[in-house]
């Protein structure tokens, strides 16, 4: 999944002021003044420098601190510290005045060297030699802050994020522009990535330009849809609803999306599995005399209404007669939202549930716990939400977790929070009303730091009250464990101990609480996702684990699979399916897993060129339900394009654009090498081992949004849409350009066996239908990405184009006014351009083009 090499962790720096400038103790006002005036800039220098001895694969970045010209006489010095986040490993920091140590996770500490002083107006450059790379400004973490003994911490004003009024997106003014493509765009000579500049985007888009849609715009594309002749279907007359085999409440959200009042136009909905044999299938007939829907089930009826609503919106309420016959090819069409790293609340999730229903997605995977946050109220264990949901400056972590990922010191920013039981029940109800299953996820045994720390607070509270036995009930660690480890995210204390009864008691309590919430919502819990990925090398020196290690031949690495097998058996006894990420699930013994394979769901998150095919084919062969969560397809926290202004982590892909998602071929994974470049070993085919056994097919696809760099709801919308529309299209039906799978056959970039002409034609049709959806998304409240235009200047003329047809483009020269672009126009000198949303309320980021030389 998730988040392997390629991280920065700008975190915790301590900075001490000199006695020459102030006394040891000072006032809150003086600390506040220093936080308001201290200059702070983070800059990327080189992604491929000559590394210091002992460090491989390094990159160089800097933090420059500029002291104010004047300092108050009583600036505090005792315990004066500066905290900041840095998400890559940081083995070396070079500074003339600071020494460095790692605190934990993405927290670092710099302290003044003995005898070092800070002077008014002085600049101090700190060199940070990180491991991996930093290709985007988004890696700079905000909200660095100052603390001093006896005073309240204060955020350094220069590091606060700012909302751009034009785009509605968060910006980080303290991160220096990244302009040197030669040093910053790639990590090595083998990496062929180039920034997607406006000129390159123009060339790329010129080969894919699509006309505006004129006919059927339904998305995902139905299996069969034809427009007829005759009088239009006038929804303005209102509808007279008649139902057979279904009640109005079951399709109420879809009816609301249609937006037609009660009136005279007959609208009949009939459930008839004999007439529509496939689950979720439907037949829609819309004529001037009335609309008839025949569906297999409630989901099919809702899908029919959603298709009708899309077409009605496009045709302004007066539809051309329409006949649709449709059913999904894949039963699992999912969206995963990470609430753990940075919280996104009830309103945002409810909005996304409505958007999912509009485009026929049916599984909402809520990632409710991570190292950085616990996001669901469990009444029996109140500390989970009270402590685990908040990040603030408390080194003891008795009131909150430390402020990882630039959360800031006061615990009040929007990245904090949790879903109450009432919130969760409301989400489950809303999803069920739209035929969407909610799959709760609590990642374990790794990625569990928030739970561990919260349960340590519980343990301390009850121990202090003399309730020793009760205190031990949910303690998730072995205090005698001296194992030293670091997780991928650089934590040394984030793994549940799988050898103690308290861990399994904890899992049962959490699952039972979630099941009770589902029951209160009137929707039984069906699937629990336990994560099970990226478990660090814990437990080797845990006395509690010695017997279990011995039982597994002395191999502590087998304890995670034994944990997964035990929890899966417990869940199966409760009638629940187990979900997990493929790396953990793949290490289990199939014989130890449930005999009913449908009780196991595995999400494949390996990168296409390095592990996805092996994992998918292996786990399909075990008979499990395999869901493709491949980063190249569905990690929507990855940037849209390789460009420093595009946010998101990029450890798996430098760019996942809608075209790549749309073109994905779920039924022939090796063939995707023809359309998705391996930028580190171009031309090397993917090995098809093990081969896919006959009769096996993936259960479906899932989009993922991990939230390390996503702090606002607007960023959630930006990263998901329109890519999620491409995934919904591909999750509904396989790609028509997919060559038949043949065992052992490999493919290379541009392979002619994948029909590029058919892919291009499909994209052009799809792009037109996407552009027709903008008003639908705007009504739901989704702040979808407005892609910047492609542009070039040739022979004194500015030319521009867009990814999607009908997009409004504006340009200006120098400091001139923004002008609507209507076609090639003469300009003198460089020009800036931006696109606008369909409603005109938001702009894309601004791009600049220079005259061709």
In short:
With 853 residues, the protein is an alpha/beta fold. The protein folds into five domains: 8-184, Sandwich (Immunoglobulin-like); 199-211 and 755-853, Sandwich (Immunoglobulin-like), CATH 2.60.40; 224-326, Chitobiase, domain 2, CATH 3.30.379; 328-409 and 417-581 and 596-604, TIM Barrel (Alpha-Beta Barrel); 605-745, no CATH class. The strands form ten sheets. The protein has an eight-stranded parallel beta barrel with strand order 21-22-25-26-27-28-29-30, surrounded by five helices. Strands 13-20-17-18-16-15 form a six-stranded mixed β-sheet, with helices on one face.
Features:
eight-stranded parallel β-barrel, single chain, 853 residues, 5 domains, 21 helices, Immunoglobulin-like, alpha/beta, six-stranded mixed beta sheet, Chitobiase, domain 2, globular
CATH-defined fold name of the largest domain: TIM Barrel
Query: Which outline best applies?
Result: globular
User: Unreliable stretches, pLDDT < 50, 5 or more residues?
Assistant: 1-23
Task: Work out the strand percent.
Answer: 15-25%
Biggest β-sheet: strands ordered side by side in the sheet: 21-22-25-26-27-28-29-30
Average pLDDT across residues? 94
Cα(first) to Cα(last) distance is 44 Å
**How many separate domains?**
5
Major sheet: size, sense and barrel closure? 8 strands, parallel, barrel
Would you identify the CATH H-level superfamily of the largest domain? Glycosidases
Protein structure class: alpha/beta
Domain Chitobiase/beta-hexosaminidases N-terminal: 36-200
GO molecular function: beta-N-acetylhexosaminidase activity; polysaccharide binding
Enzyme class: hydrolase
Signal peptide: 1-22
């Amino acid at each position: 999944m998730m988040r392997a090499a390629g991280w920065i962790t700008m975190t915790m720096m301590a900075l001490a002021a000199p006695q020459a400038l102030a006394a040891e103790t000072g006032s809150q006002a003086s600390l506040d003044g220093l936080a308001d005036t201290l200059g702070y800039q983070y800059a990327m220098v080189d992604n491929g420098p000559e590394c210091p001895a002992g460090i491989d694969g390094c990159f160089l970045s800097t933090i420059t601190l500029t002291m104010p010209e004047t300092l108050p006489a009583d600036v505090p010095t005792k315990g004066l510290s500066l905290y900041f986040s840095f998400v890559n490993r940081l083995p070396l920091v070079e500074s003339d005045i600071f020494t460095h140590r790692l605190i934990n996770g993405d927290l670092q500490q710099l302290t003044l060297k003995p005898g070092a002083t800070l002077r008014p107006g002085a600049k101090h450059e700190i060199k940070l030699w990180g491991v991996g790379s930093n290709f985007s400004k988004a890696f700079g973490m905000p909200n660095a802050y100052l603390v001093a003994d006896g005073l309240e911490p204060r955020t350094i004003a220069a590091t606060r994020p700012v909302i751009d009024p034009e785009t509605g997106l968060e910006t980080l003014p303290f991160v220096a522009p990244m302009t040197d493509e030669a040093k910053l765009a790639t990590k090595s000579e083998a990496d062929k990535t180039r920034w997607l500049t406006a000129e390159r985007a123009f060339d790329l888009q010129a080969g894919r330009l699509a006309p505006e849609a004129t006919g059927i715009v339904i998305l995902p594309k139905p299996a069969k849809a034809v427009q007829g002749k005759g009088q239009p279907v006038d929804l303005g007359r209102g509808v007279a609803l008649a139902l057979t085999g279904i009640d109005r409440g079951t399709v109420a959200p879809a009816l609301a999306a249609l937006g037609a009042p009660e009136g005279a136009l007959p609208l009949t909905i009939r459930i008839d599995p004999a007439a529509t044999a496939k689950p979720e299938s439907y037949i829609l007939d819309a004529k001037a005399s009335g609309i008839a829907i025949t569906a297999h089930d409630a989901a099919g009826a809702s899908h029919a209404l959603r298709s009708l609503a899309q077409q009605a919106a496009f045709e302004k309420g007066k539809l051309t007669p329409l006949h649709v016959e449709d059913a999904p090819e894949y039963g699992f069409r999912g969206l995963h939202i990470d609430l753990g790293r940075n919280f996104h609340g009830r309103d945002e999730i409810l909005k996304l549930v409505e958007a999912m229903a509009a485009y026929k997605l049916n599984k909402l995977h809520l990632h409710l716990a991570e190292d950085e946050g616990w996001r669901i109220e469990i009444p029996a264990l109140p500390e989970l939400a009270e402590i685990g949901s908040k990040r603030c400056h408390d080194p003891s972590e008795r009131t909150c977790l430390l402020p990882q990922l630039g959360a800031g010191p006061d615990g009040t920013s929007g990245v904090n929070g949790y879903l109450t039981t009432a919130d969760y029940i409301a989400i489950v109800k809303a999803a069920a009303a739209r035929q969407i299953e909610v799959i709760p996820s609590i990642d374990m045994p790794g990625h569990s730091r928030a739970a561990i720390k919260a349960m340590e607070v519980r343990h301390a509270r009850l121990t202090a009250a003399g309730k020793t036995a009760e205190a031990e009930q949910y303690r998730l660690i072995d205090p005698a464990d001296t194992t030293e480890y670091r997780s991928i995210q650089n934590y040394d204390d984030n793994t549940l101990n799988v050898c103690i009864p308290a861990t399994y008691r904890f899992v049962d309590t959490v699952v039972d609480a979630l099941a009770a919430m589902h029951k209160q919502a009137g929707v039984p819990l069906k699937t629990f996702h336990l994560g099970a990925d990226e478990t660090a090398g814990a437990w080797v020196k845990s006395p509690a684990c010695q017997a279990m290690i011995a039982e597994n031949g002395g191999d502590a690495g087998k304890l995670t699979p034994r944990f997964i097998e035990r929890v899966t058996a417990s869940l199966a006894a409760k009638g629940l399916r187990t979900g997990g990420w493929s790396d953990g699930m793949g290490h289990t013994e199939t014989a130890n897993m449930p005999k009913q394979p449908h009780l196991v769901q595995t999400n494949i998150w390996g990168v296409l060129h390095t592990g996805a095919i092996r994992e998918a084919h292996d786990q399909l062969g075990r008979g499990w339900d395999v869901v493709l969560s491949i980063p190249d397809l569905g990690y929507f926290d990855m940037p849209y394009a390789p460009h420093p202004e595009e946010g998101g982590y990029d450890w798996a892909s430098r760019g996942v654009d809608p075209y790549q998602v749309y073109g994905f071929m779920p039924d022939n994974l090796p063939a995707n090498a023809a359309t998705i470049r391996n930028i580190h070993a171009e031309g090397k085919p993917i090995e098809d081992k093990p081969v896919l056994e006959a009769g096996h097919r993936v259960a479906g696809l899932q989009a993922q949004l991990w939230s390390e760099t996503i702090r606002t709801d607007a960023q959630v919308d930006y990263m998901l849409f329109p890519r999620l529309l491409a995934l919904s299209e591909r999750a509904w039906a396989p790609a028509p350009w997919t060559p038949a799978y043949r065992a052992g056959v490999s493919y290379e970039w541009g392979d002619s066996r994948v029909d590029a002409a058919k892919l291009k034609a499909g994209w052009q049709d799809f792009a037109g239908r996407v552009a027709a959806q903008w008003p639908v998304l705007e009504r739901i409240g989704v702040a979808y990405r407005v892609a910047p235009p492609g542009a070039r200047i040739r022979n004194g003329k500015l030319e521009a184009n867009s990814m999607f047809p009908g997009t409004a483009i504006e340009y200006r020269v120098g400091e001139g006014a923004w002008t609507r672009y209507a076609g090639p126009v003469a300009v003198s000198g460089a020009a800036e351009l931006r696109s606008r949303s369909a409603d005109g309320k938001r702009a894309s980021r601004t791009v600049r083009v220079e005259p061709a030389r």
